[in-house]
């Protein structure tokens, strides 16, 4: 079957608001029209996406899966349209994906000083599927942390980043200066694949609520600092490797130039 992108966007709006009225307002259409479009979409797919109540909307298992897939689909379509427009205007553009807490600005500035005619953009890489922007062609290169699916990618090691233990400020271990892995034995660890959260914000909210401790890269801890959480160095935890990643079949000179500049710049910083 052909996937109707308009109905997919309608579904995403309902999924994000969990309410037909608010979604309809965002989309500038009447609520009955939106309801009919979603029902038609479910009939086309042959599965129920939403459980409707008088006050709210909940995603079914199929709906949750489609919502997750829709992020990549819509981003890929938007990127394709932008590339078409760039080609029509004769614009050269480089898009860099970055993992949470990793800073690629120095590399972009160094590259821009050598290629002032190239437009550069950045997009976030989902922490649970960092390679997604490269797979959907939303980005040409990624500044990422291992581990991720490296199939079909060329990966350039950059450096290493320590892990810290993130826990509630009221936790008995929170008064320590640092920890060892042995001291975390018996603690409930909130890390994938045991419980994958949809965002880092959700993960930190669960930690603050007492659902467990998480080992996270230091850069993530610094980027998501909050007063009800503490981050303690784990002296013997394996460090996380940072790297640049690009599709192995990409050979454009512009991309090679960025990789060379970014590798030198990021390894220094």
From TrEMBL:
Q: Which InterPro entries match?
A: LysR_HTH_N, LysR_subst-bd, WH-like_DNA-bd_sf, WH_DNA-bd_sf
The GO terms this record gives for MF are: DNA binding; DNA-binding transcription factor activity
The HTH lysR-type domain is annotated at 3-60
A GO cellular component annotated for this chain's UniProt record is:
protein-DNA complex
- In terms of superkingdom, the source organism counts as Bacteria
Which PROSITE patterns has this protein been placed in? HTH_LYSR
Q: Which UniProt keywords apply?
A: DNA-binding, Transcription, Transcription regulation
The Swiss-Prot or TrEMBL record describes its family as follows:
Belongs to the LysR transcriptional regulatory family.
Which protein is depicted?
A: LysR family transcriptional regulator
């Amino acid at each position: 079957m052909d996937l109707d992108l308009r109905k997919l966007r309608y579904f995403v709006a309902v999924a994000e608001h969990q309410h037909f009225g608010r979604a309809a307002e965002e989309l500038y259409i009447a609520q009955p029209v939106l309801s009919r479009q979603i029902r038609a979409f479910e009939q086309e797919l042959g599965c129920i996406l939403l459980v409707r109540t008088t006050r709210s909307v909940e995603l079914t298992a199929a709906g949750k899966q489609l919502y997750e897939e829709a992020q990549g689909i819509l981003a890929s379509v938007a990127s394709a349209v932008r590339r078409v427009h760039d080609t029509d205007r004769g614009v050269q553009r480089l898009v860099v994906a970055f993992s949470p807490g990793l800073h690629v600005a120095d590399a972009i500035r160094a590259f821009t000083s050598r290629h002032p005619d190239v437009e550069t953009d950045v997009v976030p890489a989902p922490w649970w599927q960092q390679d997604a922007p490269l797979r959907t062609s939303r980005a040409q290169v990624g500044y990422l942390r291992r581990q991720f699916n490296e199939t079909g990618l060329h990966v350039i090691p950059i450096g290493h980043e320590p892990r810290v233990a993130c826990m509630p400020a009221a936790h008995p271990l929170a008064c320590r200066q640092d920890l060892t892995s042995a001291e975390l034995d018996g603690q409930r660890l909130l890390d994938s694949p045991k419980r994958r959260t949809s965002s880092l914000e959700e993960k930190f909210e669960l930690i603050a609520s007492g659902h467990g401790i998480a080992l996270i890269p230091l850069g993530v801890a610094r980027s998501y600092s909050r007063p009800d959480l503490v981050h303690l160095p784990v002296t013997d935890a394996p460090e996380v490797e940072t790297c640049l990643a690009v599709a192995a079949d990409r050979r454009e000179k512009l991309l090679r130039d960025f990789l060379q500049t970014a590798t030198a710049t990021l390894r220094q910083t």
